[in-house]
Amino acid sequence: MINSNYPNLNLALATIVLTGWASLIAQSLAAQATDPTTPVASAKISCADSSPDDQEPRVDETRLPNGRSIQPAGEVMPFSGRPVDIKLSPDGHWLLVKDRDSLKVIDAKQWKLVQSIASPDGASLWGIAVGRDNRVYFTNAKSELHVYAISDRAEENNPYKLEKTITLANGSFPCGIKLSSDELTAYVCLSKSNSVAVVDLTTGKTTRTFDVGIAPFDLVLCGETLFVSNIGGRRAVSDDKTAPSAGTETVVDERGIANTGTVSLIDLRTNTVTESIAVELHPSVMAAGLNATSVVVCNTNDDSISLVNSKTHQATTLVVKPDEKLPFGSMPSAIHLLVEQKLYVVALAGNNAVAIVDPTAALVPDAKTSPADIRGLIPTAWYPVSIDSDSEYLYVACVKGLGSRSIVRPEKEGRNSHDAMGTVQRIPLTQIFQADQLRKWTETVHEVSKVKQILLAAELPPSQAADHPPIPIPEQLGQPSLLRHVIYVIKENRTFDQVFGDVAEARSEPELCIFPEKITPNHHALARRFGILDNYYCNGVLSADGHSWATEGNVTPYLERAFGGFARSYSFGDDPITYSSSGFLWDHILAAGLSFRNFGEMDYATPPNGMEYQAIWEAYTNDRPIEFKQNIGIERLRRYSSRDYPGWNMVIPDVLRMDRFLNEFREFEKNGTLPNLTIVYLPQDHLGGGVTSEAHMADNDLAIGRLVAAVSNSKFWKETAIIINEDDPQNGYDHIDGHRSLCLVVSPYSRPGVNSNFYNQTSVLRTILHIFGLPPMNQQDASMPLMSDCFQPIADLTPYTAVDANVPLNQAGGYVEEQSSAERQWRTILATVPIERTGLKTETDEDNLNRFVWHEVRGWDVPYPAEWVGPHARGLTKLGLKLDPTDKD
Q1: Rounded average pLDDT per 10-residue block, the chain, 889 residues
Q2: No. of H helices and E strands in the chain?
Q3: What sign does the dihedral 655-752-738-722 (CA atoms) show?
Q4: Which residues fall within 8 angstroms of residue 636, CB to CB, at 6 or more apart?
């Protein structure tokens, strides 16, 4: 049902027609400022320009945390959630939305959200079907098939009810679903079982299953042939290089990335799987072809679609990008056939657009791969993943929508970066086929997707590039840098205000600073000397996508759809079908012949004999040896990793990790062999693992200080940059944006002072590659600015001295008999939050951890700052954004 805490607000949000991004932001602001029972008026935010010398830079609120902008066409309906699939009812009345944890029902005629039915165990990646009688079939993460029907006493604002639940094979994780022509049978992809189930909808029994490829996703029925897309590709055979994905050995390349894609054909007359047709990477959403014997499939990890012929078993591939010269990153995530026009509409998740594709005009005789004939591009909200249409409109669902702007709980319970506001938009078909309008939309997509900037960033250097004098960050790719080594530090889960809220010179909020200089003296000392970035953002939401952003500079639609429970995996380097085809940062470093060493990233470390924090601390401080079991899922990364350095586990102090890093660092210095790229994972600022939050943070802070002190006192200092950032900002609060986080750029060439340029995680990756003369990995990092303004040409070689901790690093909570009732309550709640894996928690767990940290540090009875919590909060006004009530848009 609609959120009972704010029923009228939710409906008000859903019924507003929003035709411009300024109105979307205004709606989000107004929702926080108005009474929940008051309809929200449309307004516009304007930003005054400012000179580069101004303390407050110009802020462009069309910009997302990933640095892109959105200007969605048509009418946009925002709502709390992450929609992954949509289907229109046959009568055209209802638009059914598969959200991450619910079925949402939109009245397509009146264009308003009228119902939300919870699926508390989480939805699956994909899969919703609607019968001719308007029944809805919905797969969920609990391996169930829900059937919803129009109620006999249907209300206008409450039309559907759960009719029955069909239980499928336990742990099978159903996804795509297709009904038989008589609608008595459902064919369901079972992702973890690598099979397709045949379900009798009358009895609810599975009558048989077909083994197909790995991670089947979607189905299309053509006559008596069932086409099945397999994201993970074919089954492994002897001599294949493999890695496990949800328990199945999956074919991978030398980088550890799944490198096959297939479409299985099931003959329903003979009940046999007749063929496995090779297509490109991540075959996902499919649609019927222009004739009865073919289908078209999105190759999401290949920036292409494949036209598959069921008679010849041939597949022809069309590359679908705004510009065919772009590197990887458009990621076709959904496809829909406009029957009358004989055109396909393809969702480009990486470009926040849909492409209108003529599949016949682009075919080149005898060519397996051709550039698609794109008639035009239509701008969408953030990350389109599903498409449908009727005779009047094209409907597009965007899983990330407007970003983290939703109100999903009472204000007193707070908000954070998980508060996704997904969108569905409708675009009149008449506008799509107006040449002038389509041309303007295409220009908009090129602009907001930064096509020109990406192409320039990816250009190979001219032959004379090396003739330029070296500077820290070269102006052009291929020009020499003064830097030969980068140490890239990845930490866990803090926002800017949590640590630097007490820095008055920066855009900060002291009320939200729970780890001030007393707790984090090295963070603060480093910021004072080397500069502080107060406009830096994490791209992701939690660890599963955060570590992908931090190491790949991209997240695939497969992973973006997984927020309904992460039933296949919560990836920390242990699921090869989650990775982007453009690879990891270290792949590009190694391919260039450069050296690399990993300390802890993507390692699940296991202490011996179940040792907990205090036991490990005692052994560490008494110099007793401890051997941790290493578990790194990516074989190539494992080969370049320190065997002695433990990765994720909250019972291992960061100072122990740093001792082990420094042991190897001293060998590097002795032999003159410091790698070009070194990754150092220091996760203790995640908190929650056996000592107080202050002790966790002080431990992390001291490890950072000791790292910088060691490097700055070494012979490598004059040629080294240390870049320190978080994987995600989920366990924190910020007054400007829930994605705003901390990043320290430490080198002899660092520019002191406050730096308010916009940067994010992909800026870091592009800058690291640029230092080594390497082009960006994909469209995402290619579109981001280099962090040139963090550096200056003159070096300050003064060594840094680490500041000792002001908190005992093994500080534990008080004895139970000494605890107040409030402390006992919150420690009891904390005990329910799982921390054995990075971020493998529900949103309630995340909220509880946030609140525990706040009360433990600020006081058990100090009110939680709900009015500040969450993305944007009060910060937009502080940034100079103004509501313009006179603007009619």
Answers
A1: 29 32 36 25 24 30 75 92 95 94 94 92 91 95 94 76 95 96 97 97 97 97 94 96 96 97 96 94 94 90 93 91 96 96 96 93 66 94 96 96 61 48 94 95 95 90 79 94 98 94 94 94 98 94 90 94 84 93 98 98 95 96 96 96 96 97 97 97 90 95 98 98 94 83 97 96 97 96 96 97 96 73 81 64 69 82 67 39 34
A2: 19, 42
A3: negative
A4: 254, 255, 256, 586, 587, 590
Distance CA 766, CA 66 (A): 13
* Partners of 784 in the β-ladder: none
HSE of 352, CA atoms in CB hemisphere, 13 A: 31
Give which of 382, 386, 376 is closest to 347, Cα–Cα.
386
Cβ–Cβ contacts within 10 Å for residue 717, how many? 20
**Which alpha helices (H) appear in 622-692, and where do they start and end?**
635-639, 654-671
Burial of residue 697 (number of CB atoms within 10 Å: 0-12, 13-18, 19+): buried
Distances (CA, A) of 887 to 20, 78, 405: 11, 20, 22
How far apart are the C-alpha atoms of 258 and 233, rounded to whole Å?
8
For residue 232, give the nearest of 201, 203, 255, 257 by alpha carbon: 257
Exposed / middle / buried, residue 748 (Cβ in 10 Å: 0-12, 13-18, 19+): buried
Model confidence pTM above 0.85: yes
CA torsion sign for 275, 281, 287, 288 is negative
CA angle 368, 372, 376 (to 5 degrees): 175
Return d(Cα 23, Cα 856) in angstroms, integer: 39
What is the per-residue DSSP string for 474-521?
-SSTTS-BS--EEEEEEE-S-BHHHHHTT-TTSS--GGG-SS-TTT-H
The Cα 860–Cα 864 span in angstroms is 10
Write the burial class of residue 434 (CB in 10 Å: 0-12 exposed, 13-18 middle, 19+ buried): middle
Of 107, 84, 108, 110, the C-alpha closest to 97 is 84
Q: What burial class does residue 726 get, using C-beta atoms within 10 Å of its C-beta: 0-12 exposed, 13-18 middle, 19+ buried?
A: buried
Angle formed at CA 788 by CA 782 and CA 792, multiple of 5 degrees: 165
Amino acid at 671: N
- DSSP result, 10-74: HHHHHH--B-SHHHHHHHHHHHHHS-TTSPPPP-EEEE----TT-SS----TTB-TTS-B----S
Q: Are the CB atoms for 172 and 158 separated by under 8 Å?
A: no
Beta bridge partners of 629: 606
706 CB-contact burial (10 Å; exposed 0-12 / middle 13-18 / buried 19+): buried
Q: Going by DSSP bridges, is the β-strand pair 294-299/304-309 parallel, antiparallel, or unpaired?
A: antiparallel
Q: What are phi and psi of 705, to 5 degrees?
A: -60, -40
Please give the Cα distance from 367 to 315 (Å, whole number).
10
Per-residue 3-state assignment (H helix, E strand, C coil) for 443-473:
HHHHHHCCHHHHHHHCCCCCCCHHHCCCECC
Strands in 174-179's sheet, in edge-to-edge order, are 174-179, 185-190, 195-200, 206-211
Task: Report residue 101: phi and psi, to 5°.
Answer: -145, 25
Contact between residue 741 and residue 538 where contact means Cβ atoms under 8 Å apart: yes
**CB-based contacts of 312, cutoff 8 Å, min separation 6:** none
Nearest to 724 by CA among 447, 490, 404: 490
How many CA atoms, within 13 angstroms, populate the side-chain half-sphere of residue 597?
A: 18
d(CA 474, CA 748) in angstroms, rounded, equals: 16
Q: Is 704 helix (H, G, I), strand (E, B) or coil?
A: helix
What is the DSSP secondary-structure string of 412-445? GG---TT--EEEEEEEEHHHHT-HHHHHHHHHHH
Q: How many CA atoms lie within 13 A of 121 on its CB side?
A: 14
**Per DSSP, what are the bridge partners of residue 750?**
791
How far is residue 65's CA from residue 5's CA, in Å, rounded to a whole number?
Answer: 28
